[in-house]
């Protein structure tokens, strides 16, 4: 089929950033949910390496045409690596090993090039900029990382033929920072695809597995400074002082690469306020376990100071869960049902909502709400997939037109 759209998705994330892996997974699953006649017009190839988690690969393999392990297809040879390293620094060119992949497999839409991964020639790959966190919260970045982000963002904007943004909020920022390139942008706000295994699991069993109480709120964030854990801790302290003692279960890796001492700050705050029995840290757990705890919880709390597009909010949306969200622009844009907003970084505002929910909500899951949410999710994921395809086809059409003069 001469007009077959051959999509190449570059793997993102991992244990240090689960949101990146879920972003790619949701694109794949949303595309797989489209009608057969639409699926026949494209193929999906995952571009990854052998270090990628096997469980992730197993979850998406039935829904992609091929999984290409780049480190196997183009085996790196030490002299070539040294030569490439010198060239990339002196001449500012991409890793030419990966450019071979584009031609070898006839891929005509490769996505995403990012500020942290620019291995492909940028004039052949569509860029993804989730957000401009470093512009809004520069205090959480070192001078070196700020400089690096400015440099790579500028490279993406100037060199990539198209830039995908995760939200309208990011589009507003983009126009502010790069007004001359606004015509390059497209907005793709992803949706989490509801999976059968999510509602087939037993939340009570997973609760017991981690020795958790029946009633708890859930916070599912990496322990990065901007994710708002200290706001939650201080809100709990306010409530405890007034005789109200909610329990918070936190999932996520206890590490912030930008501030390695931040985990100690969080743990010290929990201990100094005597909240050890109210804040339960279960760490980075299997995805389905996290989903079952979300189903079991009273509500999700997402206290983040900044988001590109919150994955856990989308997961809670497709499960019909109640949510307590900081009132940052992206959360307001996501605007899920069953949600209540509080003033960002205000422990008092969060405490007020938590007290209300603690007294009024019961443990999940709620089968009726999940059924309704699932029906809505089908339409939302269809729209998400069709928007992705429209972006891909627009890129291909523009590139063909440019090549033909």
UniProtKB/TrEMBL annotation:
Residues 214-357 form the Glycosyl transferase family domain. Keywords: Transferase. InterPro entries: Glyco_trans_1. CDD domains: GT4_MtfB-like. One of its GO terms (molecular function) is glycosyltransferase activity. Gene3D superfamilies: Glycogen Phosphorylase B. The keyword Transferase applies. It holds the Pfam family Glycos_transf_1. This is Glycosyltransferase. It comes from Oryzomonas rubra.
